[in-house]
Structures are given as structure tokens and as C-alpha cells.
Write a structure and sequence with these properties.
Layout (H helix, E strand, L loop, with lengths): L15 E7 L5 E9 L7 E9 L3
Antiparallel strand pairs: 1-2, 2-3
Length: 55
């Protein structure tokens, strides 16, 4: 059985989302995903990752 991902916008057929890399240095970066259920009027982050370069 495979679970289907649930939408944070249960009441809407679609949602808007964006992805971003910020705070980048030569060794680090932050990745963030956010979604909007209101057509982009307000955004809510639901995933972040802090990345560090290792050799």
C-alpha cells in the first residue's frame, strides 16, 4: 500500500508553492519550500533544509 501525500490545502483543488535557496555561503545554503492556499496572498513554509558542504 502506498500512501498518497496530503495537500495542506484540503479545501482547494490546487495550491501555489515556491522553492528557494537562501543564506548561501561557499560552504552552506538553506533550502525552503512554502505553499499558499489563498492564491499567493499569504505563504506558509512547510519544509526547510540546512545544507553544509563536506569533502
Amino acid at each position: 500500500m502506498v500512501a498518497e501525500p496530503s495537500s495542506p490545502c484540503h479545501h482547494r483543488a490546487t495550491e501555489d508553492s515556491w522553492l528557494s535557496f537562501t543564506n548561501s555561503t561557499p560552504d552552506t545554503a538553506r533550502w525552503e519550500q512554502a505553499f499558499s492556499c489563498g492564491g499567493g496572498a499569504a505563504w506558509r513554509s512547510n519544509w526547510t533544509m540546512d545544507l553544509t558542504w563536506t569533502e
